[in-house]
Write a structure and sequence with these properties.
single chain; alpha/beta; seven-stranded mixed β-sheet; two-stranded antiparallel sheet; 13 helices
Length: 312
């Protein structure tokens, strides 16, 4: 699942009562945004519950459900949980999760969903995390689990997160793994969320390299009149070669690719708004000729600007 793969991925989200809306959104919104910025249905999701009925969230807003949870399924599974999780850990649910462990290659417990995986014995012998308020209690309850104080833990076929924001980090890591860090950053920008590529700094701390942060800010402010990479490097206080290496270390992408990603993401946003002519979108993203813009857009998004416009 966390490997480069152009094929669509379908996840199953098992929602338990008193899950927060923000936790549910942290799972599905990055996937929706990834589909939007790429123009492809890279991600699909099915929402399930233990009885097939809608689930009441902590805010009292019900989450509609697609189907009843079936442990014999094979889709990667994310189990949600937020408040009073032990009250919702029915013997039936724990039994079904234990059965799912025999069929699912990937099972995750997001926020308090990790407690349900622990009760089902699915974390024994694995590293796992939990919300900081419950971490000590979680470690005391599941002594066969290596409990660590981290935001996101992926250990072989098990995934746990320490809350809603770490779950958003997890989904961005998924997108980065499958479609590349540049795409994950596109999604993070769309959500106005700071994200560091996995393995390159702590998620949500954003760009810890001030020179790279300065360079990306310059790029963002010069979409319609692009600067050269040499100009950006000079303004960021670096040589061009040093900027290249710092970009790859911080973001996993060369500055040229990152800059083009910013321009192409903005172009797609403007086209989907449906209020701008293609010629105007080309100019707004730094292209002197519509033909050059169309070629670059098709290479980046896999479709012509006119095809994106027809989706409005």
């Amino acid at each position: 699942m966390f490997e480069p793969d152009p094929h669509p991925l379908e996840l199953e989200v098992l929602v338990t009562p008193e899950t927060t809306l923000i936790l549910f959104a942290a799972i599905v919104e990055p996937l929706r945004a990834a589909n939007r910025v790429t123009g492809r249905q890279h991600y699909r999701w099915r929402v399930t519950s233990i009885d097939g009925g809608s689930v009441q969230t902590a805010a009292g807003v019900p989450v509609p459900v697609d189907e009843t949870f079936d442990p014999s399924g094979t889709r990667p599974l994310l189990v949600t949980g937020s408040y009073n999780i032990l009250d919702h850990a029915s013997p039936k649910l724990v039994r079904l999760l234990a059965q799912a462990g025999r069929n699912r290659g990937i099972i995750g417990g997001v926020e308090a969903g990790g407690w349900l995986l622990g009760l089902a014995g699915l974390l024994n012998g694995y590293r796992a995390t939990a919300h900081w308020e419950d971490l000590n209690a979680f470690a005391a309850r599941f002594q066969e689990v290596e409990v660590v104080e981290e935001r996101v833990v992926r250990d072989r076929g098990r995934v746990t997160t320490a809350g809603s924001a770490p779950t958003l980090d997890l989904m961005l890591e998924l997108i980065a793994s499958r479609q590349g860090p540049a795409r994950a950053l596109d999604v993070a920008r769309l959500l106005n969320y700071q994200f560091s590529a996995p393995g390159r700094g702590t998620p949500r701390q954003g760009l810890r390299d001030p020179a790279v942060a300065r360079a990306t800010d310059l790029m963002q402010r010069h979409l319609d009149d692009p600067l050269s990479i040499a100009q950006i490097a000079r303004l960021a206080g670096l040589s061009t070669r040093h900027l290249q290496s710092r970009f790859v270390a911080a973001l996993g992408a060369a500055p040229q690719a990152h800059y083009m990603g910013l321009r192409m993401t903005e172009a797609r946003r403007l086209l989907l708004e449906g209020q701008h002519k293609v010629l105007d979108v080309a100019a707004a993203t730094g292209f002197a000729s519509p033909a050059g813009f169309a070629r670059a857009y098709r290479r980046w998004h896999g479709e012509r600007p006119s095809e994106t416009r027809r989706q409005v």
